[in-house]
Write a structure and sequence with these properties.
By secondary structure, the protein is of the alpha+beta class. It contains 8 helices and 13 strands.
Amino acid sequence: MLKVAPFSNIKIANSSKGESDINGSGNSLIHKYADVLFNSDAPQGNTLLRCKKGQQFVIEGAPVNGLFFIKSGTVKVFRTGINGREQIVRFAKEGEIVGHRGFGTQEYYSIGAIALQDIELYYFSKEFLQGVLISNPEFTYDMMLFYANELNRSENKVKSISQMTVRERVVDTLLYINRKFGSVKGFLNLPLSRKEYADYAGTSEEQVIRVFSALKKENLIIASGKKIGITNIDLLKKEISEHNFFLDS
């Protein structure tokens, strides 16, 4: 039984049993192993879910019963810190996995996940995935590489938070959003609130506002409401070049 966010607010649709219906990068696991994950011999192994913007589909502390692949849309993955403050772990887009941090090792999800826009998700049960891992060594190997990469990203983020200044962390966050989501009409293709920038960079909303104000005065960024545009990416990169790493890749 799936125990994540209540299904009363989440639309369940029939899963497509084919690779052609999967969006995202051709290098994603769900794209590469579509023939395995959408095996017609195990039709109950996956479920297609549709969530509206702002809906939470993984609740921190809920029992782990499987994980999610994003078919379309963007997701905010977070965990609750001291005094109930939200810490954003990462932003995920189509083709990426959500809920894997607790899969196979913990009984409860250590993170929560919210749709930043209308999204579609493939949910795969824990039992189904365990069977795939046992029967398909190539999939298991690629999952191992995926977890190793995730660990490296987490370690780099801890390192950056301890060694970067507040300004450098905010700049690094802007560059990360630009690398991952790109720009549309001069603005980053992921509108975020100042609080969301702060929760990802590990600082306060007030500090983010101050840094953005300084960057605007230096003609490094432009802003229009929640939308932020980078006007001089080379200078921003130069600010954090000595660290030789980013908050994420």
